[in-house]
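Task 17 of the worksheet. Students: predict the tertiary structure of the chain below and write it out as structure tokens. Keep your answer in the requested format; marks are given for formatting as well as content.
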Amino acid sequence: MIETALTDLWYGFGVALEPHNVMWCFLGVLIGNMVGVLPGMGPLATISILLPLTFGIKPVGAILMLAGVFYGAQYGGAICSILLNLPCHPPHAVTCLDGFPMTKQGRGGAALGVTVIGSFIGASWGITEMIFLSPILVKVALEFGPAEICSLMLLGLLAGSTLARGSPLKGVAMTLLGLLIGIVGSDIDTGAPRFTFGIPNLYDGVEIVALALGLFGIAEFMKSVNQINIVETKYTKVRFADLKPTRDELRRSWPAMFRGTLIGSLCSLIPGTGPTIASFIAYATEKKLSKTPEKFGTGMIEGVASPEASTHSSVQGDFIPTMSLGIPGDAVMALILGALLIQGIIPGPQLIREHPDIFWGLVASFWIGNIMLVLLNVPMIGIWVKLLAIPYKYLYPSALFFACIGVYSANNDMFQVGETVVIGLAGYILLLLDFHPAPILLGFVLGPRFEENFRRAMLISRGDILVFLKHPISLAFISLCVLLIVMQIYLRLRQPKMLAEEKALDAEIDKVAAAEP
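Model answer:
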């Protein structure tokens, strides 16, 4: 098995090192690193804007570029969290707790150095996990019938909605909305129009490009348009020599990195968790295991090393269920899944066998891209920080302009531009009401495939709904769904007690802060 995996990986490097694929990989990680620094942009909005560009690119190059944006953004996000105390993106919010205090102590460079090391270790583990685990998952998945696939997708939808940011009920509501949007258009069996309201342009359904750009381009732009960020840059002058951590910092960082890497890799296998939850679990674990937990929040190197390693391990591991099972773990993976579907490629158990150039080329490109990021990240810190000085009034209208051009150029259809605007306005209203739109994309991508497999299961079982409980694998997934719902109810009932504990902790932190000179 190991020999076969290494042979396939060697083939992947042959694909990834083709000049045009190297170019797309470099472009992806460069853009990802840049948008990782910019608050409000993030990989979701960026991939949405770049999605129309992939129509004219070969599938391998398109996926390498979009994947590069995703994991490249994680490097840029760490810079702002550590040097500026500015959590540009959710996975790096916890890094601020100890990263910025280290910066104020003159050890910001060391925190960045440990971040680069931890990020590379976490990413490398995630890649290795993908090499050996994906083929095993594929062999298991080939035994799946419609009932098993349907149950697995139900678990993915439920986990993606209940584990999303904010209220679980709001997450479920957004997933259901995504499912409804996904069935707009002609019925896959009868061809009858559904929810088209007599508009012929909707007979082919809602375009994923319009949905993604509306929810994560226009809506985010309208939310951020009045923001004025005053960025304090007095701590941002970091020399190359400052990146070297002390021997004691390295000694304390190594175990934290490996623990964070393990947590991130486990979280990546659970649909709906993603890097944000992985980073918070990693930080909480380090604080619990520490002999001096009271020092966390004052500049502990473990509080930087573990969350960053877990973030990168989770990001790389997120590709495992997406590529091998066709089940996206979060909204970004759903968007990349959509990009594959646009190219006519169906992610799932057959992908490795039918499109080995895409799968193994992507795996090999992860290492190439992460090496590029290590080389790019350090010398360009000053440039990335200066990007934060760009006013919103220039940055977001420019992004919006290119988004509209991208939507129109996809099919040369002005209806899709209007569709994007309407979706964007609806997405903005949802954001104002504290409904996060990410689960909509998850429901939209998985909805049609869920419906198709549900119909097949019903046809094979002659309408017996208990078919999902008669098959052992399907029963296991249904049991996990029930467990997830029970867990959410339990957490909901415990919420008042948890809020009281959080208030007590906040009061303690305020007391410590007030006692400082």
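Marker's comment: The chain has a mean pLDDT of 77. The two ends are 61 Å apart (CA to CA).
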